[in-house]
Amino acid sequence: MDFLLSVIQDPNARWVIAGCFLLGISSGVLGCFAFLRKQSLMGDVIAHAALPGICLAFMLQGEKNTMLFMLGALGTGLLGTWCVHSIVRHSRIKSDTALGIVLSVFFGFGTVLLTGIAQTGAANQSGLDAFLFGKAASLVQADVSMMATTAGILLVLVLLLFKEFKLLCFDSNFGRGLGFPMGILDAMVMLMIVLTVVIGLQAVGVVLMSAMLIIPPLAARYWTEKLSRMVLISGIFGAISGVFGTIISGFVPKLSTGPVIVLAAAVLFLFSMLAAPRRGLIVRQVERMRVRRRVAEERASREAERARVPYGGAVSKGGDA
Amino acid sequence: MSHGLWIIITGSLVAASCGFVGCFLILRRMAMLGDAISHAVLPGIVIAFFLSNSTDNVFMLMGATVIGVLTAFFIQTLHTAGVQEDAAIGVVFTSLFAIGVVLVSLFASDIHLDVQHVLYGEIAYVPWDMATLAGVEMPRAVWMISGVFALSLLIVGLFYKELKLVSFDAQMAAAAGIPVVFIHYLLMALVSMNTVAAFESVGAILVVAMLVVPGAAAYLLTDRLGAMLGLSIVFGIVSACAGYIIAVYFDVSISGAMTTSAGLLFMLCFLFSPRYGVVSRVLEQRRLKKAT
């Protein structure tokens, strides 16, 4: 309780929670589009590919500068998606292998840079370790306001282009027929996903950031069949897991924020999978048992009917298939 | 034997073993499943460590192999329950990995694993942890990985025909009466074992890289499965050696450098493979244009 009070009173903690809240909303919303375009794992690649960018930015600047880190992450994140696309397009390698290659090689190169920085003995390279598994406590007001600006722009864009993005997800050929620039929209969604990953890196970390794009939409999918509602629910789920994960991880000083946020989202997912109306496993199981019982009853009554009417005897009353 | 040589041998064994098994993942379009398993075994390793209180036993290998197969099973279950495959992979492995990281950071003072160790491993410490078996003294990691490698070779040798058919045409394999599901989980068990054996010494990231990158490079050079398996082993060993040299020269992470050199090797194949490379195809097109 003391801790919760201190969270509410401490202005820095409030900033941190606000940051994770925003991050949760934007990754939940953008994740829906990645999910429907079957590009969920692309988020994983982008997040891992961001690591060398962050390190390069650090090497250029020599100190922790969030803006520059974000630019670096954006640069290598985009480079990573480009590599995946061109490997798939220009060779016989399938997309899953291309994702694996880019993810591991970029991340491996990132660790090379990270250890390279460490052995130069730069004083405050500890800030870089926070990017691996996330350290929400390292967020300061400037970081949060940048996250807020980016998240705000992303959300407004989704709102404005909602219909176009919907078309892109469900029937992009039809959209092309209507004269929408589907290639540009596709690139735009990709850029927006990269931006979401980038703003989440500091709080969740490169290793688990993809989970924030995957899990909330998947959980939201159980509750509705409408895209607009799914996006809304997914945003709410993302925000809930961001805030709760941050608060819980605050109790244990050694704990990174990222894994806890991801686990909070996973709990929401499990709950949705089990308890959602109509698509949830419990409801479906109950439904299945009801059908089974009805079938059994019908069969029993039919057997009874047949027992009364002797074989080859009078024609039954109909309905006896 | 010198420390450097042991490190190179460890890296080469990991690369050869993972690259070998990874070929089947690539052909079955399940590369990301390898990525998922190599992350998801972390909680298995940590739990096995708590139960057995040491890092050096077969018990741990078994425990984590079970978790790896369970991961594949969870993903398959979600997939059959209507979740699309990439999302199913994503949700299972990130959750399991998160559990693992939380366990490691909560009990970091009790065990010598830490979260960064998990990612890039401590291959440099391999030569300090020797074990003697049958009068031969080798680093524990080398014993473990060569054992798993031998087992992989044995199993792939025994089921070569089945694996081949399942990789290239699963439906036909099913029609021919091959137990496709059994072969699938056999492969998953092999991947998990390789991951676990390599995980502690070289870290998750090198495992993922070696599962995918050498096999993909080999896939660009040949159309024959046997040649692809052989080439992937060669590529793995070459990138391990090159990586070690780079790492020593620049004084950086050894497994990171091995991954990077595997990536460079892949890029060379991607550009200059005689049949499937980008450059050679451009040249071929130009030649055809001139001929017409």
Topology summary:
The complex is a heterodimer of chains A (321) and B (292).
Chain A: H1 2-9, H2 11-36, H3 40-61, H4 66-90, H5 95-120, H6 126-133, H7 141-160, H8 162-170, H9 172-177, H10 182-204, H11 209-221, H12 227-251, H13 257-275, H14 281-308
Chain B: H1 3-27, H2 31-52, H3 58-80, H4 85-106, H5 115-120, E1 130-133, E2 136-139, H6 140-158, H7 160-168, H8 170-175, H9 180-202, H10 204-219, H11 225-250, H12 254-272, H13 278-291
Antiparallel strand pairs in B: 1-2
Overview of the molecule:
- Chain B: It is found in: Cell membrane.
- Chain B: It comes from Aneurinibacillus aneurinilyticus.
- Chain B: It is a multi-pass membrane protein.
- The complex is a heterodimer of chains A (321) and B (292).
- Chain A is mainly α.
- Chain A has one domain: ABC transporter involved in vitamin B12 uptake, BtuC, CATH 1.10.3470.
- Chain A contains 14 helices and no strands.
- In chain A, helix 1 packs across helix 2 (11-36) and helix 3 (40-61) runs antiparallel to helix 11 (209-221).
- The model of chain A has no long low-confidence stretch (mean pLDDT 85).
- Chain B is mainly alpha-helical and 292 residues long.
- Chain B has one domain (3-211): Orthogonal Bundle (ABC transporter involved in vitamin B12 uptake, BtuC).
- Chain B is 79% helix and 3% strand.
- Chain B has 13 helices and two strands; from the N terminus they run αααααββαααααααα.
- Chain B has a two-stranded antiparallel ribbon with strand order 1-2.
- In chain B, a hairpin with a 2-residue loop joins strand 1 and strand 2.
- In chain B, helix 2 packs across helix 9, helix 6 (140-158) runs antiparallel to helix 9 (180-202) and helix 9 packs across helix 10 (204-219).
- The relative contact order of chain B is 0.17.
- The model of chain B has no long low-confidence stretch (mean pLDDT 84).
- Chains A and B meet through helix 3, helix 5, helix 6, helix 11 and helix 13 of A and helix 2, helix 4, helix 5, helix 10 and helix 12 of B.
